[in-house]
């Protein structure tokens, strides 16, 4: 299988796409992408997943991963998960990756280009949100099986028009789970800060619905910042933002963040690390292992969601039903307040600190994806 390289180093739509869409839709280069049942409203857990081999089909196809922004370790691992899943179908002749560089116009152009090059499948991480939907709509009209991944529950667009299905974790449940754990661990009282990713991204937006809903039930909880603090999912930015918040607020009791930046800010300031809810990351697990006094909970980082999106999209392109869940409930991976051995810290100091314990990649695959040999 040929893998075309379009990746960053580790650390108005044109009118023409409309004409291209109708030209490709009438050319018959793709099967009827709405023939297969994909169950876009079905809920479930990872135990309900099925092997890629069930959906490969026989027709040679080209698949692509249109990333809205590929600039950190999480995106590098998600790309590797996509490529690994694609490698399981011998009839996938090309698996391509494009990076939108967090520029909506760049991702729109990427999707236009994939349609023009007659890709059969586009899995998309739509960081630009609804701004990208016209491009996915035209791709769908052109007969391309488009499946956005990790959109969260409240994503704009319509199945059957803007894409053939979705594959996403319940980000509302994700935010609610983190908030409920913080409340429980703090005994129902405390000052909390919630951090997000890029401004306006659909994942953080859905998480916010969940944690606002949870915190509203507890009058003893005070949100120091009413909106999620944007960090671009960059540990350095998160550390810088947290340092400013430490200076602004004398008492911070709990935090949620998907990077280790805030912890580093508290350590640098000589302050106790607050009760912390985070996302699966080796660095985070090992920091907690080195600070046994920490109260920390780690949620699944779901870099593997792109695999489900690819299976759904390939099934559509091949006309094969896929009854896997489209909305996946995530659970707690690690919890220092729990006595359950299944929730013990997964620190492995032989691994890169930006590796992710909840990934479905092997250790060797993660090392390679993160720039190692």
Q: Any overview of this molecule?
A:
This protein is of the alpha/beta class and 373 residues long. It has 2 domains: 196 residues, Response regulator (Rossmann fold); 165 residues, Rossmann fold. 35% of the residues lie in helices and 16% in strands. The chain has 11 helices and 15 strands. Strands 8, 9, 10, 11, 12, 13 and 15 form a 7-stranded mixed β-sheet that branches. Strands 1-4-3-5-6 form a 5-stranded parallel β-sheet, sandwiched between helices. A 3-stranded parallel β-sheet has the order 2-14-7. Strand 3, helix 2 and strand 4 form a beta-alpha-beta unit. The two termini are 21 Å apart. The N terminus is likely disordered.
Oligomer: single chain
Q: How many helical elements?
A: 11
Poorly predicted regions are 1-29
CA(first)-CA(last) distance? 21 Å
Order of helices and strands: EHEEHEHEHEEHEHEEHEHEHEHEEH
The largest sheet is: 7 strands, mixed
Shape type: globular
Output the radius of gyration.
21 Å
Strand portion = 15-25%
CATH architecture of the largest domain: 3-Layer(aba) Sandwich
CATH T-level topology of the largest domain: Rossmann fold
Total of domains: 2
CATH superfamily of the largest domain: Response regulator
Level of helix content?
A: 25-40%
Number of E-type strands = 15
Pairing-aware structural class of the strands and helices? alpha/beta
What's the overall average pLDDT, rounded?
91
Q: Give the C-level CATH assignment of the largest domain.
A: Alpha Beta
Task: Give me some keywords for this one.
Rossmann fold; 2 domains; 35% helix; five-stranded parallel β-sheet; seven-stranded mixed β-sheet; 373 residues; alpha/beta
